[in-house]
Amino acid sequence: MDRSTQLTARPAERETTYGPPGAHAPAFGTSLHVRAARVLDANWTGSSTVPSRNLYPHQWSWDSAFIAIGLRHVSPRRAQTELETLLAAQWADGRVPHIVFNPSVPLDAYFPSPDFWRSTTAGRPAGAPRTVQTSGIVQPPVHALAAWLVHCADPGLSRARGFLARMYPRLAAWHRYLLHRRDLGGAGLVSVVHPWEQGMDNSPCWDAPLARIAPAPARSFRRADLAHGAPEDRPTDLDYGRYVRLAADYRDAGYADGGGEFAVEDPAFNALLIASEHALARIAGELGAAGTARHARADRLTAALVRRLWDPASGMFLCRDLHAGRPNHERGVSGLVPLILPGLPREIAAALVRTLCGPHFGLGGRTRLVPSYDLLGEAFDPHRYWRGPAWFNTGWLLERGLRVHGERERADALRTAVLRLAEDTGFAEYVDPYTGAACGATGFGWTAALALDLHHQAHRDLRQELHKDLPKRPAEGVSKAATGTFDKRDEGGDRG
User: Fold this and answer.
1) Fewer CB near the last or first residue (10 Å), C or N of the chain?
2) What long-range pairs does 356-359 form, CB within 8 A, spacing at least 24?
3) Are 398 and 268 in contact (CB under 8 A)?
4) Rounded to an integer, what distance in angstroms lies between the CA atom of residue 113 and that of residue 99?
5) Is 154 a catalytic residue?
6) SS3 of 54, please?
7) pLDDT digit of tens for each residue in the chain (496 aa)?
8) Cis preceding linkage at 112, omega within 30
9) Non-local CB neighbours of 276 within 8 Å, separated by 6+ positions
10) DSSP assignments along 296-321, one per residue
11) Backbone CA torsion sign across 433, 436, 441, 444
12) How far apart are CA 412 and CA 170, in angstroms?
């Protein structure tokens, strides 16, 4: 690796206790920062970061957004490059593909591989790029949120490089694609056309709509994932056959939207779009344009989300299966993610917190991190992919959501748990929600990156606590505090 691309570790510092002053919380020193930075170095390809060298050897869309959020604290330039590389593979219709393939990786290292997706041929009607191979489906739109936070880490560098000026039109086109081409239910919300698009691939929330899909023959594909993970922790062959069938049908239709057998309105996907609409409004303001229309659109989408997917009886948001014409009553962590939205009615936010901390998810009681699926559900499995294990990216999102709605003590406790488990497990892909035991890959990209983000925010909170009684003066080089899904922790990155 060219050492010029490596992250700079900070000099040694005293240990820092995460959590409110006087609380019993674990102590972390420089080790987490250094170890997380080393993971990101090890996963760096020269232009982007892979989630895992062995299991996921290409660039993934929402992984790169989360990774950029962590990278901003130690290398804002590389965080910018992460997003620039991803968006350089954007299709002409605006979609951001969920995988950008590295041509130096052998075809048999990952399935579905480029020769399955055939983006440069099958994707030509939708404007797939000719010079890079990608998948044809998408992932949750965290990118504008990531771009704004990366800008805030070093506004001077961002402005000097024209980072936001170059990102804004691509991000706007990405949102237009989702809002115009993926409103398959006609109610204003975005639909996913494959479980892989939602990111929580194997959730029981997809079992009912997937049951209608005839699986591809087992002999028609070879699963590379089983060579790197325990089969009992991965999706079943039956589920994988259905994933392959859906993807092949979408490809064979030229990646045209609206004609497939799977169409689901998902609460997390839409909540992340809303958060990114607010971020795009702030980016527009930074570039000298009015962001009022985007804030208004985010408010309309929030209202549609509540109207369409909120279920008072469950105390959370539910997925809606468009082909069945009804909600799916499985409780997945996706239904809690809208807590990140500041525009939620107060009573709905309070109900989400009760559900998060209640018997179905057990935060602060039975579980160490938030499980990906209902603890009481028939399909719950603490180790099988997205059917129960706890993931660090959803923990990061829910920590933000708790802060947005004034739940500081719970947010502090969740942050402490994320940091402790990330370091103790070697930055595992996911963990058993009860024991915290590592599952999946270790040295996982977004786990390291989001632990870095929470680590720096904990340091910042501690400094603010220690200095709260000192005379205040304006900070230099820090933009105005953002509102909405952002707080002052996000402004002016701490690069150590």
Assistant:
1) N
2) 356/398, 357/410, 358/315
3) no
4) 10
5) no
6) coil
7) 333 333 433 333 334 444 433 333 344 456 899 999 999 999 999 999 999 998 899 999 999 999 999 999 999 999 999 999 999 999 999 999 999 999 999 998 888 999 999 999 999 999 999 999 999 999 999 999 999 999 999 999 999 999 999 999 999 999 999 999 999 999 999 999 999 999 999 999 999 999 999 999 877 767 666 565 666 666 778 888 999 999 999 999 999 999 999 999 999 999 999 999 999 999 999 999 999 999 999 999 999 999 999 999 999 999 999 999 999 999 999 999 999 999 999 999 999 999 999 999 999 999 999 999 999 999 999 999 899 999 999 999 999 999 999 999 999 999 999 999 999 999 999 999 999 999 999 999 999 999 999 999 998 988 888 877 666 544 433 333 333 455 555 654 433 3
8) yes
9) 141, 142, 143, 144, 145, 171, 175
10) HHHHHHHHHHHHHHEETTTTEE-EEE
11) positive
12) 35
3-state secondary structure of 44: strand
Burial class (CB in 10 A: 0-12, 13-18, 19+), 76: buried
Residue 55 and residue 132 in contact, taking contact as beta carbons nearer than 8 Å? no
Please identify which of the residues 63, 321, 429, 453 carries the catalytic annotation.
429
Q: Which two tokens stand for residue 221?
A: 């594909």
> Whose structure tokens read 């009022």?
292
Alpha carbon of residue 180 to chain centroid: 22
Task: Provide φ and ψ at 71, rounded to 5°.
Answer: -60, -30
| Among 14, 23, 16, 39, CA closest to 392 | 39
Helix ranges restricted to H, 43-162: 61-71, 76-87, 114-117, 119-122, 143-153, 155-161
Residue 28 has φ and ψ, to the nearest 5°, of: -130, 140
Q: What are phi and psi of 430, to 5 degrees?
A: -160, 170
Read off the tokens for 446: 């977004």
Nearest Cα neighbor of 195 from 120, 288, 146, 264 is 264
Stretch (H or E) spanning 439: strand 438-439
CB 322 within 8 A of CB 208: no
Annotated active-site residue 201? The verdict is yes
315: left (phi over 0), alpha (psi -120 to 50) or beta: left
Work out the number of other CB atoms within 10 angstroms of the CB of residue 445: 30
CA distance from start to end of the chain = 23
Cα 210 to Cα 246: distance, rounded to the nearest angstrom: 9
Supply 23's token pair: 């609380």
Q: Where are the beta strands (DSSP E) in 217-336?
A: 264-265, 310-311, 316-317, 319-321, 326-328
